[in-house]
Amino acid sequence: MPGSELIGAEERKEINDVLETGILFRYNHDEQRKGHWKAKTFEQELAKFTGAEHALMCSSGTTAVALCMAACGLGMGDEVLVPPFTYIATIEGVLLGGAIPKFVDIDETLCLSPAAIRAAITPKTKAVVLVHMCGAMAQIDEIVQICNEHNLILIEDTAQALGASFKGKMLGTFGKVGAYSFDFFKIITAGEGGAIVTNDKQMYLNADMFSDHGHDHIGNNRGMEGHPVLGTNFRTSELHAAVALAQLRKIDYILAQQRKHKKRLKETLAQFPEITFRYLPDPEGDSATFLSFFLPDEETARRVVKAFAENGIGGIQYWYDNHFHYIRNWEHLRGMKTLFTIPAQTMECPQDYATVQFPATDAIMQRLISMVVRITWTEEELNALCNKLTEVLSGVLTKQAA
Ligand SMILES: *Cc1c(COP(=O)(O)O)cnc(C)c1O
Predict the structure, then answer these.
(1) How many angstroms does the Cα of residue 139 sit away from the middle of ligand 1?
(2) Which atom of ligand 1 lies at the shortest distance from residue 160's CA?
(3) Nearest C-alpha neighbor of 328 from the set 372, 293, 361
(4) What's residue 94's pLDDT?
(5) 9-18, 80-89, 342-351: range with lowest mean pLDDT
(6) Are 182 and 79 within one domain?
(7) Which numbered atom of ligand 1 lies nearest the CA of 93?
(8) Cα(369) to centroid of ligand 1, in Å?
(9) What is the total count of domains within the chain?
(10) In a shared domain, residues 120 and 237
């Protein structure tokens, strides 16, 4: 999964370009920067890679989600459908803009269920923030169709799925605006960072202004004359952009390695008939950052997780118990513990977050295990891991006769 496995000479070179000029700011200083525009260049290359018309780098994936909301004019009191299984940052991005999240069940894609979205839509619903969870796609074609039918804005939180696609089209480019994250744990990393992509010029301009105190940017520069809207500071720096640029140039290698390694792991687990796999609407488009699989029931899943831990098999996630990724353990959200007032506290909410339950999603999460797919495994390491997996699982499950 993480591009952090590959930090090396290329990242150092890009950083040095910036340090040698001393211009850490992404705008202005044309003379001194000696032709280095790391943020600009990264944005051009990200747009090209994703096939989107426009890309804008920002300070994090969380601010990218908030930027999507602002760019689309979503905010105060707008009801937005979101999944209960995501990194909490998605929800923070929605709350930052003042919108009100309404949680909707996922399906075996680990992403929002199209049927659950349909059932949740009311006249108050304005948008869907779809998360392509754990490296791969939702049933995106159906979700696009629902949004079109009901005139809902579709935002894609693609923080975990850079480079994943559906039928050849990159995730993040199906909705109005897509968000990415380049934090330390993501497919590529800048240390910290995020980006939005869109085909809509006005959305891009909105995001561009909002992310830099409302300034319009003429050419590469920030004029002090124009500030058409109020904004805030979600900017990135040239240092972060430099690392992101070197990392983006490794994305094809990252995806190829992950796909190769995941194939081996999947074949190993497929020996056990009790194991089934996450539903991938387009297996070819999987970024393969995780191998996600199901056991028949919670009890068996817990036994497998325990056996992995006892045998030193790392990189295992049992999301159902996780504190950051599943609503069950979001005590802060459930208790509305905030440090500033959010509209969800003062306006009418579509759900009582303290008590709302998700039995259909629970039934998926209880049986789900994800395994991180590393980029840098050697052939020997991968062989050893596959042998160990077979051995440990044989102690818990029944192996199919060869
Ligand atoms: C990591 C992540 C984010 C936020 O990214 P940061 O860069 O850490 O702010 C948002 N959404 C999802 C689904 C993520 O996994």
Answers:
(1) 21
(2) 15
(3) 361
(4) 96
(5) 342-351
(6) yes
(7) 10
(8) 20
(9) 2
(10) yes
Residue keyed to tokens 């339950």: 357
Per-residue pLDDT reduced to its tens digit, 77-123? 999 999 999 999 999 999 998 999 999 999 999 999 999 999 999 99
Same domain for 179 and 214: yes
Q: Compute CA distances 174 → 111, 141, 185, 380, whole Å.
A: 15, 9, 24, 39
Residue 74 to residues 112, 129, 349, Cα–Cα distance (Å) = 20, 11, 16
How far does the centroid of ligand 1 lie from the alpha carbon of residue 179, in Å? 9
225 and 357 part of one domain: no
Residue 224 has pLDDT above 80, yes or no: no
| Tokens (6 digits) for 371 | 């395994």
Say if residue 395 is in the same domain as residue 338. yes
**pLDDT by residue (tens digit) across 140-162?**
999 999 999 999 999 999 999 99
pLDDT at 342 over 90: no
Q: What is the pLDDT at residue 222?
A: 80
| Mutation probe of ligand 1 site: the residue of 67, 88, 156, 186 with most atoms within 8 A of C-beta | 186
- Evaluate: CB of 87 within 6 angstroms of ligand 1: yes
Q: What is the pLDDT of residues 40-73, one digit of tens each?
A: 999 999 999 999 999 999 999 999 999 999 999 9
Task: Give the CATH number of the domain where residue 39 resides.
Answer: 3.40.640.10
Q: Assess whether 38 and 107 both reside in one domain.
A: yes
* Domain assignment of residue 73, given as a range: 3-251
- Distance from residue 61's CA to the centre of ligand 1 (Å): 5
> Are 331 and 197 in a shared domain?
no
Residue 43, token pair as written in the block: 């944005």
Whether the CB of 90 sits within 6 Å of ligand 1 = yes
Residue nearest to atom 6 of ligand 1 (CA): 61
